[in-house]
């Protein structure tokens, strides 16, 4: 072996940036995905509030008390009372249940149905043209109008609100899924699976479906947020959740008449609705960055 | 072995002849693939992309045939047609005596096992949501190659060994590997089916120089060890020369020259092949080379030129080229080329007079 | 005393902050480019060659990136200039051509507008003057019917034509330095040959110095005068082109040269099995204070795994960072 006559040592290289502490586990996750953490944390708080509503110093949100109508917020009535004397704080806390149920149910059902239609349409050539024209037709009607029309045809109930908003959201999801499926079909690994003798059904199940889930989950969060807003709008105009059930839309609708003198009746449910929608959207944005494989590859 | 090719389509006779020992493993006859162009309000067909327009070649058992040409010449389409990833427009693809282009899906499966593929991009050729184990087990399960679970594990270990990946890497996800390692996984997936022919579609083009050498060496070793035939689709002539037995040069949907390696690199008989060879930059500073720089760009395959498709860029073009399409003709032993210049006496043929652009 | 170099990169460090560590993409790189000279920076993906070119033009986002060291262009340290002063240099004194012409041209502007824009910005030409100059530039880079082509949009041109337009744009303001980052990698060989010929030809006519960033040793051999080999963010070897190919000193360079097959090898009978460089490039997120190539080097010893070799002259004008590269006798 050669021996170097004299060893030339390179000058040491300085650090030009402070070192990054690579945190693993939960803390590391928070650091890398602050949006997921903030959005998810806020949403968890609101879910906890809805679930634990009876324990959060609430009273019966439907109990009428004409004697205590339209009280200002105070130590006794945190958010005041409405024109029928009901405690606005209790109504807002319980109202979270309706918004969350509607948001999650619509997100779930429209994703599942949209996924099925999108996969079918992306894989069956002859069906594609027909299905997509139907979806185009549905999409040309504003979602909220479609929901109002459907609500007009049915009896007001939370179930029907979910159904109405789901019908309006399905075309969006199916379009998204179809687009993803069409691009996945062109992936070399799908060609390789065909060459490996994999049948169409298994290709959809093993190679296409798992790769559509990330964009669908992200889309589902946006649908969840928009469904909550849609529910409030429907309730606000009296075409949604029946007035007997406290929902943020209903509370705002009832406070509408007194908006100029007693703004707090509208203000508190509106704040909670905005916070919830913000939480869900933040979570969606964070998930998009986190689940996007291209982003992951760069880091 | 004869490399004579005919541009006239043969009849179904290829299917009928039995197990002749000298029969090629793969025979492609007058393969055409035209992709319809849709447009207008009603989505009607407004034209065709003549991606592959009458290509014939054959590959013997254990042989490497390289398909070279520039982007858009149709070489990858030929590979996909042989894999039957789509139906062809016309022509025949015959694998070991069985015509596979018309085979119904139900009886195609055993034939599929015999032709496998390795793609260019090591990132998009592996499903990101499947573990290496599942990726490799897929062909083994589909073709029913493993007797039981123990046999499956034995086979999986064997292919991992063959492509020189550590056995315990099998439980990992594709994104945990580097580009070169992923390409090894792609090769392992192809090998798991125990094929006779592997189509390497630019299989080493996307890799870094040092990794490329590893994969090229691996493919060469595998071919020797397993007696595999390779259809090596590439635009990299230096790698092709290093790997191949025979070369077919494609230009705009047609094969313009087919020859055994040495014959092609020593005595190209088509001006396009000459230009390609002269255009490759060689890692040898100051190497004195005659460079034929082609003018202009490759014409569109939607509206290919009349006569010889190369006539718009050919430095030797003459009147006949613009009207009459040259056929592949024997120019040297086992060496065919489609160029009218080869009909001239040798002393007048500039392709012979000027010799190879390589030294 | 020789003339000061046009560009002098001194101990360049470009680091990026990532969630799991500092990526030391370029670490301690020094080189110079003389006026009118063509220098190639060659290396595999991730070696820091493209980051180097982006650092010179300060096109990297800071943060998460940080550039340290000095980049002296005509004596001025580019890292100390204001953003406004830097804009006056980019596209004017130093211009760049990229690998993918389609993504670096604006799809909604005609070719003439894009070339003209630079001229109007940097040289204050009128609209008509800029248009006339654009036609002249297209003619210079060998685009047929330039009067018609100036009015076309990038998507109407082929890949080779787009790269010519990029070159025309880059040369419009008579830059003193042209940085070409993989200018022919996305092109087919026959088109690559056209573009390389064009670059060689223009070099004689325009006289700009060129920094050519590439992974293709063939392109290096054809175009460059001097070569810098990069590995894992460092310069491991530098030599005039003929010297480097004939007499590589660093085991990495030797490995690279052995790993490429040579066209025509089947005719000369010098076919050999390609040399492999085993293993992988080390992670740049860890500080390496020994030889960066030690993990893959066939000759590595304990010394290599402990002590970082300095770049030293091993032959006239030829430096390498390897403890074991033999030194040829030089005139004392």
UniProtKB/TrEMBL annotation, chain A:
It is found in: Cell membrane. It comes from the Bacteria. It is a multi-pass membrane protein. Keywords: Cell membrane, Membrane, Transmembrane, Transmembrane helix, Transport. It holds the Pfam family BPD_transp_1. GO terms for cellular component: plasma membrane. GO terms for biological process: transmembrane transport. Residues 100-284 form the ABC transmembrane type-1 domain. Gene3D superfamilies: MetI-like. PROSITE patterns: ABC_TM1. The chain crosses the membrane at residues 36-59, 100-124, 130-153, 264-284. Belongs to the binding-protein-dependent transport system permease family. This is ABC transporter permease. It comes from Roseomonas indoligenes. The lineage of its organism: Bacteria, Pseudomonadati, Pseudomonadota, Alphaproteobacteria, Acetobacterales.
TrEMBL record, chain B:
GO terms for molecular function: ATP binding; ATP hydrolysis activity. Residues 1-23 are annotated as: Disordered. Keywords: ATP-binding, Nucleotide-binding, Transport. One of its GO terms (biological process) is peptide transport. InterPro entries: AAA+_ATPase, ABC_transp_ATP-bind, ABC_transporter-like_ATP-bd, ABC_transporter-like_CS, Oligopep_ABC_C, P-loop_NTPase. One of its GO terms (cellular component) is plasma membrane. Gene3D superfamilies: P-loop containing nucleotide triphosphate hydrolases. Residues 1-19 have a biased composition (Polar residues). Residues 26-277 form the ABC transporter domain. It is a peripheral membrane protein. It comes from the Bacteria. The keyword Transport applies. It is found in: Cell inner membrane. SUPFAM superfamilies: P-loop containing nucleoside triphosphate hydrolases. SMART domains: AAA (SM00382). Its main location: membrane. The keyword Nucleotide-binding applies. Belongs to the ABC transporter superfamily. NCBIfam families: oligo_HPY. This is ATP-binding cassette domain-containing protein. It comes from Roseomonas indoligenes.
TrEMBL record, chain C:
GO terms for biological process: peptide transport; transmembrane transport. It holds the Pfam family ABC_tran. It is found in: Cell inner membrane. Keywords: ATP-binding, Cell membrane, Membrane, Nucleotide-binding, Transport. It is a peripheral membrane protein. Residues 7-257 form the ABC transporter domain. GO terms for molecular function: ATP binding; ATP hydrolysis activity. It comes from the Bacteria. SMART domains: AAA. One of its GO terms (cellular component) is plasma membrane. Belongs to the ABC transporter superfamily. This is ABC transporter ATP-binding protein. It comes from Roseomonas indoligenes.
């Amino acid at each position: 072996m050669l021996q170097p006559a004299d060893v030339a040592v390179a000058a040491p290289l300085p650090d030009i940036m402070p070192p990054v502490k690579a945190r693993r586990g939960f803390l590391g996750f928070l650091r890398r995905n602050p949006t997921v953490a903030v959005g998810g944390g806020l949403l968890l708080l609101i879910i906890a509030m809805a679930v634990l509503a009876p324990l959060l110093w609430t009273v019966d949100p439907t109990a009428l008390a004409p004697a205590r109508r339209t009280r200002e917020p105070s130590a006794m009535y945190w958010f005041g009372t409405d024109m029928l004397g009901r405690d606005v704080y209790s109504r807002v806390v319980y109202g979270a249940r309706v918004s969350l149920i509607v948001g999650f149910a619509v997100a779930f059902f429209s994703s599942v149905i949209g996924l099925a239609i999108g996969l079918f349409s992306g894989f069956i050539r002859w069906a594609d043209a027909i299905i997509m024209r139907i979806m185009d037709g549905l999409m040309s009607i504003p979602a909220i109008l479609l929901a109002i029309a459907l609500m007009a045809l049915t009896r007001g109930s939370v179930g029907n609100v979910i159904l109405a908003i789901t019908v309006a959201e399905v075309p969006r999801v199916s379009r998204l899924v179809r687009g993803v499926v069409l691009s996945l079909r062109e992936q070399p690994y799908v060609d390789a699976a065909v060459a490996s003798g994999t049948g169409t059904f298994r290709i959809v199940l093993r190679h296409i479906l798992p790769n559509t889930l990330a964009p669908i989950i992200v889309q589902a969060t946006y649908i969840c947020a928009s469904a909550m807003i849609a529910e409030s709008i429907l309730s606000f105009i009296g075409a949604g959740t029946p007035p007997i059930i406290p929902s943020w839309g209903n509370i705002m609708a009832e406070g509408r008449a007194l908006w100029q003198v007693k703004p707090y009746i509208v203000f508190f449910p509106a704040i909670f609705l905005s916070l919830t929608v913000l939480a869900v959207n933040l979570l969606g944005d964070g998930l998009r960055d986190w689940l996007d494989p291209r982003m992951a590859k760069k880091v | 072995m004869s490399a004579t090719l005919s541009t006239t389509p043969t009849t179904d006779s290829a299917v009928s002849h039995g197990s002749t020992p000298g029969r090629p493993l793969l025979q492609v006859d007058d393969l055409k693939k035209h992709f319809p162009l849709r447009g207008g309000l009603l989505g009607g067909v407004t034209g065709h992309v003549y991606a592959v327009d009458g290509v014939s070649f054959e590959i013997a058992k254990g042989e490497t045939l390289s398909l070279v040409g520039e982007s858009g010449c149709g070489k990858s389409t030929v590979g996909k047609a042989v894999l039957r990833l789509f139906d062809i427009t016309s022509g025949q693809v015959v694998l070991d005596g069985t015509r596979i282009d018309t085979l119904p899906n139900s009886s195609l499966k055993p034939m599929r096992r015999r032709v496998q593929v390795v793609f260019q991009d090591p990132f998009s050729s592996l499903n990101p949501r499947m573990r290496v184990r599942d990726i490799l087990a897929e062909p083994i399960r589909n073709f029913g190659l493993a007797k039981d679970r123990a046999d499956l594990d034995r086979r999986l270990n064997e292919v991992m060994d063959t492509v020189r990946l550590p056995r315990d890497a099998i439980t990992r996800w594709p994104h945990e590997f580097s580009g070169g390692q992923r390409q090894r996984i792609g090769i392992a997936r192809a090998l798991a089916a125990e094929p006779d022919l592997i189509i390497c579609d630019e299989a080493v083009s996307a890799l870094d120089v040092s990794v490329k050498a590893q994969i090229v060496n691996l493919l060469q070793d595998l071919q020797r060890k397993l007696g595999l035939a390779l259809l090596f689709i590439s635009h990299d002539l230096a790698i092709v020369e290093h790997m191949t037995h025979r070369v077919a040069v494609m230009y705009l949907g047609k094969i313009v020259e087919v020859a055994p390696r040495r014959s092609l690199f020593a005595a190209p008989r088509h001006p396009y092949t000459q230009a390609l060879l002269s255009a490759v930059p060689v890692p040898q500073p100051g190497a004195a080379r005659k460079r034929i720089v082609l003018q202009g760009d490759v014409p569109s395959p939607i509206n290919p030129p009349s006569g010889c498709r190369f006539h718009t860029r050919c430095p030797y073009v003459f009147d006949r080229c613009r009207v009459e399409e040259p056929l592949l003709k024997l120019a040297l032993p086992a060496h065919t080329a489609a160029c009218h210049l080869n009909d001239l006496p040798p002393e007048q043929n500039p392709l012979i007079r000027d010799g190879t652009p390589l030294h | 005393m020789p003339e000061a170099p046009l560009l002098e990169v001194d101990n360049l460090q470009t680091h990026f902050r990532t969630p799991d560590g500092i990526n030391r993409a370029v670490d301690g790189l020094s080189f110079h480019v003389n006026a009118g000279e063509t220098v190639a920076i060659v290396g595999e993906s991730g070696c820091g060659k493209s980051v180097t070119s982006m650092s010179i033009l300060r096109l990297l986002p800071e943060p998460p990136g940080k550039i340290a060291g000095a980049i002296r262009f005509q004596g001025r340290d580019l890292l100390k200039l204001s953003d406004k002063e830097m804009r006056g240099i980019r596209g004017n004194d130093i211009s760049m051509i990229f690998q993918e012409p389609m993504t670096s041209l604006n799809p909604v502007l005609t070719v003439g507008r894009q070339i003209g824009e630079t001229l109007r910005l940097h040289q204050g030409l009128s609209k008509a003057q800029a248009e006339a100059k654009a036609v002249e530039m297209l003619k210079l880079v060998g685009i047929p019917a330039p009067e018609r082509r100036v009015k076309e949009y990038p998507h109407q041109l082929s890949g080779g034509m787009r790269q010519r337009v990029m070159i025309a744009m880059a040369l419009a303001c008579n830059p003193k330095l042209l940085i070409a980052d993989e200018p022919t990698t996305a092109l087919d060989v026959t088109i690559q040959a056209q573009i390389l010929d064009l670059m060689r030809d223009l070099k004689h006519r325009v006289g700009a110095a060129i920094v050519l960033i590439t992974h293709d040793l063939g392109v290096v051999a054809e175009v460059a005068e001097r070569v810098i080999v990069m590995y894992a963010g460092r310069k491991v070897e530098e030599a005039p082109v003929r010297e480097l190919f004939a007499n590589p000193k660093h085991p990495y360079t030797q490995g690279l040269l052995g790993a490429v097959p040579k066209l025509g090898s089947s005719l000369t009978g010098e076919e050999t099995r390609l040399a492999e460089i085993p293993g992988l490039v080390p992670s740049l997120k860890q500080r390496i204070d020994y030889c960066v190539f030690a993990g893959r080097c066939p000759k590595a010893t304990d010394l290599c795994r402990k002590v970082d070799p300095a770049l030293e002259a091993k032959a006239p004008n030829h430096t390498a960072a390897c403890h074991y590269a033999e030194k040829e006798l030089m005139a004392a």
